[in-house]
Amino acid sequence: MQNTSVFPYFQPIISVASGKIVGYEALARQYDSEGNIVSAGAIFSSKETPIEQLRELDREVRWMALQKFSTLDDKSCYLTINISAAWIDYISNVNDLPTLDMLDKLQIDRSRVIIEITEGVANIDKLKAVVKTYRQHGLKVAIDDYGSGYSQLARVIAINPDIIKIDMGLFQLAVKGGIASDAVQSLTRFGKRQGCQIVCEGVEKIDEFLFGLDCGAQYMQGFLFSHAQSEFQDSEAYQQHITSLRKKFLSRKLSTEKKKIQRLQSIEQLSYKLKEALQDDFNLNELSTWGFEDQGILKFYLCNPEGTQISSDFNFQNNSWFSDSRQMGLNWSWRPYFYQSIALYNCGIDNQVAISESYRDHDSGLLCKTLSLSLDKDRILMIDIKNED
Description:
CATH class of the largest domain: Alpha Beta
Number of helices: 12
CATH topology of the largest domain: TIM Barrel
Strand content: 15-25%
Low-confidence stretches: none
């Protein structure tokens, strides 16, 4: 007889491209002392219950979830099942996995099931072997809580997951900006470069959804759409809502991008004007009247084609220019925007600005970008600007 102290609920996972429910995550639930349905996390995190008992309980919930999933008419939907990384060490035979037996008994298409590796200490070789077995049997693998605890870069490299789920706590913190935002953006860029699909979970507010889109997440999951429920839902239940949110995102991004483009166009015009002035002797006091400060330009300097800085830094501050020779002789050839300018010049494109990615300047602490523009065959103009993204 099944243990009914815990049972599965299902939270929808939604595609931002189609707006449809494309899958569900099976989550363990229980009744509290007042008869309310709550998360069963307290049971599985208990240090008082023997691990074998917890594993058996988890398998019962998994079996109930798969039984329910086998009745779902929409055969395009997938089911995500959580398996603790810590429990994998207890598997004696990596070729004999309980979930695979359950799928055989219920005759569920294995391509519709995703194994989600949750937090916990695990032997990395054992983990790789188990994941290999799952994949050999047609299942996909996801890493949960990426960016937190044990679900770090080494684990991603080891098992090369099909799906990465960004840690909910980190994601919600990242929406507020700052270093957490940069971290999530970096994590999602890395995941996409590896061909992983990105899921943002814990999406509860509109701004969190919009931030997820900005990160390039393909899928969303959270209370903004639905709590976990006992029954599956109509696949188009949130399509209209998603459509509205996508429009809001596009409107915001178009407004932001328009301002960025206009600002960069102004800075590029100043760059071309500066290029012209640097063909002969130049007067810093005259240059200071050109509106550099208004455009967020911090400094400019010159390099030779080998990347060595051949001029002082010409800094703009408090409506005046001053020079600083401390950087002369340093070589910047390893910076992408430098060799991009050289490549443009060598291709006969000598009047196009190359722009770096954002970075934080070590001395000023400001978020910056560097523009580079060929002056002639012997000199490259570099311009540092404040990044206002």
